[in-house]
Amino acid sequence: MHRTSVIRRVLPSLAAVTAVALAAGGCTAQAVGAAAPSSSATPSTPVAPSSAAPSSASPSAPSSPSPSASPVTAAPKPKALMAEGTENEQVRELQARLRQAGHFDRSPTSFYGSMTAKAVSSFQRKAGLPATGSVDETTWSRLVAQTRKPTAAELRPPTTNELDAPDARCMTGRVLCISKESRTLAWMIDGKVVSAMDVRFGSENTPTREGTFSVGWKAKDWESTIYHTPMPYAMFFSGGQAVHYSSDFAARGYNGASHGCVNVRDKGKIAALFDQVKVGDKVVVHW
């Protein structure tokens, strides 16, 4: 009778535990690395409590904690003064100094893109510095020590590409004279060049139209409604084609192309040009 009564007391307890487990199983998260319960497992037969006497062994004394190793703190990375995506006048000076040192073969644009990062890495390798592609205090100090303060002409040269002879249609009035051959834009008034800048055109699939046009409208802050890309300082001359600043052109140069627009990579120059050009001024796109 004693054994039977023990079993009866154990079985109800097992049933209660099983019911709780089934009710909660659909919402319980399993710990990472824990083995999932097998659906084919058979519940073990309840076992009567052991009549063995409790062990008289005394609990072992807690072991003394071993001293932990001192954490190794990594040296903080130098703070970047300039890196990809930076756009300011210090970047323009950086590019002019890199050009003096023979690591940058373009006119400064004030935009820190992949080509500037590549030039910085080249300078850093030559100077025995980590080639991170970004400018920290050490890189800047080393570059300043090896170069001189850029002149105004070095910071803002007329153009990287040499202007070709102006098209005859550009010799009278106010004209944006755009040459596909020299890849330049010359802002001309009565046959005289007021300013000039490098430009980029559309690809074979989206060519920039050639001919004589006029500025139909202007928008200082515009986003393409087709490609959803920024078009700052846009001056539209033929449908959706416009002269505008391109950060992609500033970063990648002629490795890319526009969707038909005339891209300018010098933001300072296109901003000044935008203020001077009026709606109705002539636009000539030629070879």
Q: What structural class do you assign from the helix and strand content?
A: alpha+beta
The total of beta strands comes to 11
Please tell me how large the radius of gyration is: 37 Å
State which percent range the strand residues make up: 15-25%
The helix/strand series, from N terminus to C terminus, equals: HEHHEHHEEEEEEEHEHE
Low-confidence stretches: 1-61
Continuous helix count: 7
| Main sheet attributes: strand count, strand direction, barrel closure | 9 strands, mixed
Ends: how far apart? 112 Å
Strand order of the largest sheet: 6-11-3-4-5-10-9-8-7
* Residues in helix, %: 25-40%
Written overview of the protein:
Strand 4 (184-189) and strand 5 form a beta hairpin. With 287 residues, this protein is of the alpha+beta class. Mean pLDDT is 80; it is low at 1-61. The relative contact order is 0.11. The protein is built from seven helices and eleven strands.
List the helices and strands and how they pair.
Elements (H helix, E strand, L loop, with lengths): L1 H23 L55 E3 L6 H12 L13 H13 L8 E2 H10 L5 H4 L18 E6 L4 E6 L2 E9 L10 E4 L2 E3 L14 E5 L2 E5 L1 H6 L9 E3 L2 H10 L5 E5 L1
Parallel strand pairs: 3-11, 9-10
Antiparallel strand pairs: 1-2, 3-4, 4-5, 5-10, 6-11, 7-8, 8-9
